[in-house]
Amino acid sequence: MSAQIKIETTKHPKLKPDQKNLGFGKYFTDHMFIMDYSEGKSWHEPRIIPYQPLVLDPATSVLHYGQAIFEGMKAYLSTDGRMLLFRPRRNMERINRSDDRMCMPTIDVDFGVEAIKTLVKLDKDWIPTVVGTSLYIRPFVISTDPFLGVRASNTYKFIIILSPVGAYYPQGIAPVNIYVEPEYVRAVRGGTGFAKAAGNYAGGMKAQTIAAKKGYVQVLWLDGIERKYIEEVGAMNVFFKVKGEVITPDLSGSILPGVTRESVIFLLKHWGMKVSERKISIHELFEAYQKGELEEAFGTGTAAVISPIGELNWNEHRIVINNNKTGEVAHKLYDTLTGIQYGRFKDEFGWTVEIK
Ligand SMILES: *Cc1c(COP(=O)(O)O)cnc(C)c1O
Q1: Complete domains list, the chain, with CATH
Q2: Of 12, 18, 47, whose CA–CA distance to 30 is shortest?
């Protein structure tokens, strides 16, 4: 398949940033992948070109009606120099569920993974080597008809860009405080919550801004109808350990089905722990806390892998979980997942894909 991808390498390689100060999503590599879709021609002209701006007509569909979806995954460099991806097919399968929901054309999963591999391989010198760093991969699809009518576009672009990113926890995994959002909601059943649709994130920024002003790192989202059942934490899935049982909200349509979430559920079951995917209300959670039964809380996602929750504020009721310390289960999950991702642990589950 990769033979089909035309490659034009840059004549002006960029200076690479200082690996100690990468942050997240600030620097981009020398190249990008792009291919076009038009009705009748399907996806065509897959190519890798020097990283560059897009030129878009001001009437371009995506700028007005937001047919835009994205993915987020990482390439890791192992200590013995192997380039590893973590379950990349899952991301391509999710792109297609997102595409379908937004009336956008789907992409061949194997070809998508091949495009990612080809681009990462070309820019492999950009994968940072400092412990905990990685190369963030951002595939996305946008609608490109220069037309102001409200309808699905007939043309699209699938683009992949790469960004070297710093360690999420330079000082080691640590808990964060979370504001339970009482008014604004992220998604409703029947809406677009299960898709990584750009508009979901624009809609979430108001609550995020309010929480940040109050001194909280993220918001805990409640369901869009009763504002009662727990959905997600920021752009992460959420887990609670109550009396030895690990509970995570079930995928009801408004929750993003995370690859990390799926991997965490698998690992917990593999370790013989009790895991439930079910509705859990904020009342049930605070009650469990009052009874001394809430043992751990943590978010899961590609960026942080595991993000322990140390404090929750729900309408000015504050609870501190596990003395604001990272719990045992959160720690074990973090060590296991990053161990597999960076190739330090044997991958018994066939989750990693090596780029050769
Ligand atoms: C991307 C994302 C997640 C986490 O998904 P992963 O595949 O684990 O990275 C969770 N919730 C939301 C809203 C997201 O956008």
Answers
A1: 6-165 (3.30.470.10), 176-341 (3.20.10.10)
A2: 12
Residue 343 DSSP one-character state: T
Report the C-alpha dihedral over residues 96, 148, 159, 45, rounded to 10 degrees: 100
Q: Measured from the CB, is residue 338 less than 6 Å from ligand 1?
A: no
Question: Taking the chain, what is the end-to-end CA distance rounded to the nearest angstrom?
Answer: 15
**Cα 14 vs. chain centroid, distance in angstroms?**
27
The pLDDT, as a whole number, for residue 1 is: 42
Residue 135: in which H helix or E strand, if any? strand 134-143
Q: How many CB atoms lie within 10 A of CB 223?
A: 23
Contact between 139 and 158 (Cβ < 8 Å): yes
Distance CA 46, CA 33 (A): 7
Lowest mean pLDDT among 62-66, 169-173, 176-180, 318-322: 169-173
Predicted pLDDT at 101: 98
Residue 193 near ligand 1, beta carbon < 6 Å? no
Task: Kindly state if the Cβ of 341 falls inside 6 Å of ligand 1.
Answer: no
